């Protein structure tokens, strides 16, 4: 199943119309928003995790039936948002490609990087370079969406805890600040175009992917070059933290092919089995906080 969150292009983005939940079939999206009425009511203190993702296995048969009963909307008439409404944390694989290993690094020694969940964005949101005077790199990755809570998860059982996968753009501002700072600007965690459930991907460790900028190939690779494959990466993260439904693990990106984007650029990302998305880059206002005489 392919699951998205979207607005119609004719919706008022500042109005009361909520973001819709859809099932994607071919080139059409079927509105299954009514299924969220089946989610359990919540009271404070709220349980951790995205509650839709937590109940996805139970809701899927009803979602399929509802999608059968409603007419689909053409995908080109909708604006796709981040498919995970409430990610609890963004965990970023560090040094997880072969060239880092060849240089003496290993992701199990390097640990993990992190991104604030307020950076979450979907294809229609685009990427805003809030400080356009600084350099921001694209990093195309596979975004692993956790579906079931767990910690100390062995690799042999790790995929049982995965709800599905998305294309991820782990945008990162370059500089002397802590890495998680440069990863956490609003819109720097793009996911999309939808969540493809785990059962649709036979082998997540053998996916071709491609990123172009303004039509020029920038990243063309395959997940078989990951040092820690998808299951090993989930095990790695779960060895130090509890994972909850809706948490997202970015797989890591090949450092040989990352590079900068500037305002007015257009990124197009495609991954085998996960779809494709086009993401526009715009410029923000520039840094507004004082540097006390420091040179940026």
TrEMBL record:
Segments forming domain Fumarylacetoacetase-like C-terminal: 106-281
A Pfam family hit: FAA_hydrolase
Keyword Metal-binding applies: yes
Molecular function GO labels: catalytic activity; metal ion binding
Biological processes annotated in GO: small molecule metabolic process
Matches recorded under InterPro entries: FAH, Fumarylacetoacetase-like_C, Fumarylacetoacetase_C_sf
Keywords: Metal-binding
PANTHER family reported in the protein's UniProt record: FUMARYLACETOACETATE HYDROLASE DOMAIN-CONTAINING PROTEIN 2A (PTHR42796:SF4), FUMARYLACETOACETATE HYDROLASE DOMAIN-CONTAINING PROTEIN 2A-RELATED (PTHR42796)
Family recorded in the similarity comment: Belongs to the FAH family.
Protein known as: Fumarylacetoacetase-like C-terminal domain-containing protein
Lineage, uppermost ranks: Bacteria, Pseudomonadati, Pseudomonadota, Alphaproteobacteria, Sphingomonadales
């Amino acid at each position: 199943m392919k699951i998205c969150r979207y607005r119609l292009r004719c919706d008022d983005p500042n109005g009361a119309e909520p973001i819709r939940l859809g099932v994607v079939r071919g080139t059409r999206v079927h509105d299954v928003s009514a299924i969220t009425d089946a989610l359990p009511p919540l009271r404070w203190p709220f349980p951790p995790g995205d509650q839709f993702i937590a109940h996805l296995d139970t809701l899927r048969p009803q979602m399929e039936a509802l999608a059968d009963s409603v007419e689909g909307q053409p995908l080109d008439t909708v604006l796709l948002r981040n498919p995970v409404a409430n990610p609890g944390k963004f965990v970023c694989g560090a040094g997880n490609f072969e060239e880092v290993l060849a240089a003496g690094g290993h992701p199990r020694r390097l640990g993990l990087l992190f991104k604030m969940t307020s950076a979450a964005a979907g294809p229609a949101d685009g990427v805003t370079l809030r400080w356009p005077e600084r350099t921001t790199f694209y990093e195309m990755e596979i975004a692993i969406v956790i579906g079931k809570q767990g910690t100390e998860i062995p690799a042999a059982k790790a995929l049982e805890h995965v709800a599905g996968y998305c294309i991820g753009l782990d945008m990162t501002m370059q500089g002397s600040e802590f890495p998680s700072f440069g990863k956490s600007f609003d819109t720097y965690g793009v996911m999309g175009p939808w969540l493809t459930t785990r059962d649709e991907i036979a082998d997540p460790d053998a996916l071709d992917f491609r990123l172009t900028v303004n039509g020029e190939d920038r990243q063309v690779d395959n997940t078989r070059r990951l040092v820690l494959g998808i299951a090993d990466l989930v095990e790695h993260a779960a060895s130090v933290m509890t994972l909850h439904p809706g948490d997202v693990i970015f797989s890591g990106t090949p450092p040989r092919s990352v590079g900068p984007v500037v305002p007015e650029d257009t990124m197009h990302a495609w991954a085998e089995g996960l779809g494709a998305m086009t993401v526009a880059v715009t410029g923000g206002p520039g840094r507004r906080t004082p540097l006390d005489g420091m040179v940026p």
